[in-house]
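Q: Two folds, back to back.
A: First:
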Amino acid sequence: MSDASVRPLAVDHRGNALTAFLRRAEERPPGDAPLPLALVALWCGDRVLMVFDRFRQGWELPGGLIEPGESPRQGAVRELLEESGQTPVEPLGFVGYPRFTLAPDQRVEYGALFSGRCAEVAAFQPNEEIEAIRWWDLREVLPGRVHALDACLARLAHGPGLPL
């Protein structure tokens, strides 16, 4: 079944789509498309960490491209620290593999989504990429745009016992 025949889970303002979410073992990544990025849903209580990306001008989950020689998990930990200064209390848990169809060329790729908890919020220093961070309860309105794909992924990573 092609992505075109499936209703996406979310579509953003640029036409990028989250077309599937594969809950499978971290050791079994999909092999039908590249896996270039890792994302983190870091929770503090019932709020998830969102970062405001200066270039994309919107709120999104911390994450980014996996560097050569890095595992998706290593990339997730590095990106979380680089973008937000936050560290989880325990090793990140693996949630699944989101499948994206990216506009305008309809290129398909996967990400690796991880989740964790934060006991103490570290001080944040704005940097070249990230202007601000916020802890979002999934219901409130954040100033500016919340990227639809990231909001959907935060909901998919929502831990047990956290009210929606």
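A: Second:
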Amino acid sequence: MLTSLQQSDRSIAASILTLQKLSYNVEAEIIGYYDLPPLQEDVLHIQSSKEVFLGWMVNGILAGVLSYEETDKSILICRLVVHPEYFRQGIAANMLRSLIVDQNKPIYVCTAMKNTPAVRLYQQFGFEITNTFTSCDGLYLVQLEKKLNKPL
């Protein structure tokens, strides 16, 4: 079940951070890059974030988190993470679907090019690769966009 998370609460921020580190460690293994910025964050970073955080609960356990920033013109997905014990159970898809439904503005996301599970998930929801670039330390990234005229 999807729920709003108040990341300013220290215990909620700590739960988000724990889940985030578990999930991003798996991504780091997939892409062969271990210096991902979310792995460097701490509880205070999560607490002070201006992102909107949504959580997916399974039997009272935080199994997934999606966060985003919204402007008048667009939405930027900042993180979409699932606890490794809940991989391949549709949690990421359900969270993404909940964000996308009835949206009236483009949605953007950026991920590592080698993170093929994430790229495929976004593409299944109508996102298209709009840009590829390299970070200052050599990580190949893709930006994806879900345009308004693309149905789910």
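Q: And?
A: The mean pLDDT is 94.
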